[in-house]
Design goal:
Elements (H helix, E strand, L loop, with lengths): L4 H4 L3 H22 L1 H10 L20 H6 L13 E7 L7 E6 H17 L7 E4 L7 H13 L2 E3 L6 H11 L3 E4 L1 H13 L11 E5 L5 H11 L2 E8 L4 E6 L7 E3 L4 E6 L13 E7 L10 E7 L1 E2 L11 E2 L4 E2 L4 E3 L2 E3 L1 H10 L3 E12 L2 E10 L8 H19 L4 E5 L14 E3 L4
Parallel strand pairs: 3-4, 3-5, 5-6, 6-7, 18-21, 19-20
Antiparallel strand pairs: 1-2, 7-8, 8-9, 9-14, 10-11, 11-12, 12-15, 13-14, 16-17, 18-19
Helix pairs in contact: 2-3, 5-6, 7-8, 8-9, 10-11
Bound molecules: 5'-O-[hydroxy(phenylacetyl)phosphoryl]adenosine (DLL).
């Protein structure tokens, strides 16, 4: 089944024409309405008249997370606050988060894109989805929530955590769909298995998993443990949230909603566009968004674009699985964490040196982040209570800045290995 056949199966030539028209309108609007973009375009020597076709997108300057942070909170919004009806946010590299504003129209488009994804997975209005992504500033919970409602299905707004209760309600309410991060799906699957309830007590058949990288191996494990078919859903808050792209029944890459976004792959070093099939950094230009339109937004996600036709009939480009990032962002239990955020906390607190090491592990399918930190020589003490107090303060501060709990280990001065070149700040032991 296809949710919006005219759009999803539009012949490519027509689609490119539509993209061109929408791009032109977007550029016109931001050039005249958002001083940030006018300045950027003038600096790059591009005028709105230079943008006539979808292919002209490459003439536009890039936008980055730093641009959003530097114009915190609303500097890149292109609609007046009176038209914005929702805000979401995600973590920035340091300091300010990036804030995303949606107009009513943006929310409708988003709900439709998630409904398209769920339809591509084989879901319909007869399905009941347990949404176990976090609800809040993170886009996962509400994104899937309104997508399921738009589809006409039943949504159980579980949010994340409270795993025992999730298992109980999955048995009692009989959801046929589950939406959460793939690592949480594995954790839930184990909790279901250990609950003592037989598999036949559960009715799950479809999973919508994303927000973090996962592999074919993990897919097989999740499918086996939960007895479902597991589908990938990709997105990022700056561009929209979950549903920027999604798999179909054929599971050969994720279809990008090209009637809303123009996708490119660039070389992250030279910033030159790369041809289809060549891996590089994914870049999106939004062509329908009103609240926060983004021109050539650098996602920092590494992937490649697939242009061969898909047997499902959708004509859009697909993207392969995300293989990594061109920056150092980590995704821990679905939460984006930058090592620089840890560093900024350490710099705020006089008791610590800026020498630290982040060690990430996956234990029983849960991500664990350990932060080893050197205490400054003048603050190091043999007195347990002083060190416990210090550790407590750092743990709290990290939790409030990162949004997830870290296992803090205080170490003696001069014990974290110094490097002569690039400091190695992260050891990621997770096998995805
Ligand atoms: O993670 C939106 C989302 C929610 C997507 C629920 C899918 C499901 P952010 O918190 O802004 O938004 O994080 C975006 O997460 O740039 C990727 O690095 C990573 N990511 C998202 N989906 C996938 C996926 C949401 N399917 C960042 N595979 C992105 C690999 C993913 N990485």
């Amino acid at each position: 089944m296809i949710w919006n056949e005219p759009m999803e199966c539009m012949p490519r030539e027509e689609l490119r024409r539509l993209q061109g028209e929408r791009l032109r309108a977007t550029v016109e609007r931001v050039y005249h309405g958002t001083p940030f973009y006018r300045r950027k375009m003038q600096a790059a020597g591009v005028a709105p008249d230079d943008i006539r076709y979808a292919e002209d997108v490459v003439k536009l300057p890039f936008t980055t997370k730093d641009d959003l942070r530097d114009n915190y909170p609303y500097g890149l919004f292109a609609a007046p606050m009176s038209q914005i009806v929702r805000l979401h946010a995600s973590s920035g590299t340091t300091g300010n988060p990036t804030v995303v504003g949606y107009t009513r129209c943006d929310l409708q488009a988003w709900a439709e894109m998630v409904a398209r994804a769920l339809t591509a997975y084989g879901a319909s209005g007869d399905d009941i989805f347990s949404v176990a992504y976090g609800y809040g500033l993170f886009t996962g919970g509400l994104g899937l929530h309104y997508g399921v409602e738009h589809l006409g299905g039943v949504v159980i707004p579980m949010s994340s955590g409270n795993t025992r209760k999730q298992v109980q309600l999955m048995r009692d309410f009989g959801p046929t769909g589950l939406a959460c991060t793939p690592s949480y799906a594995l954790y839930l699957g184990e909790a279901m298995r250990d609950s003592g309830y037989p598999r036949s007590d559960f009715r799950l058949r479809i999973g919508a998993f994303g927000a973090e990288p996962w592999s074919e191996g993990m897919r097989a494990e999740i499918e086996q443990l939960l007895g479902i078919k597991a589908y990938d859903i990709y997105g990022l808050s700056e561009i929209m949230g979950p549903g920027v792209s999604h798999e179909c029944q054929y599971q050969h890459g994720s279809h990008i909603h090209e009637d809303h976004f123009i996708a490119e792959i660039i070389d992250p070093q030279t910033l030159e566009p790369l041809p289809h099939g060549v891996p590089g950094e994914l870049v999106f230009t939004t062509i329908t968004k009103e609240g926060l339109p983004l021109l050539r937004y650098r996602t920092k996600d590494l992937t490649s674009l697939i242009a061969d036709p898909c047997p499902c009939g959708r004509t859009s480009l697909r993207m392969s699985r995300i293989t990594g990032r061109s920056d150092d962002m980590l995704i821990i239990r679905g939460v984006n964490v930058f090592p620089s955020q840890v560093e900024s906390v350490l710099l705020e607190m006089a008791e610590f040196t800026p020498h630290y090491l982040i060690v990430v592990d996956r234990v029983n399918n849960l991500d664990i982040m350990q932060v080893q930190v050197e205490v400054g020589p003048e603050h190091f003490s043999d007195e347990m209570s002083a060190m416990i107090e210090l550790k407590k303060r750092l743990t709290h501060r990290l939790q409030s800045v990162l949004g997830i709990a870290a296992d803090v280990r205080l170490v003696e001065p001069n014990t974290i290995a110094r490097s002569e070149g690039k400091a190695r700040r992260v050891v990621d032991n997770r096998k995805l």
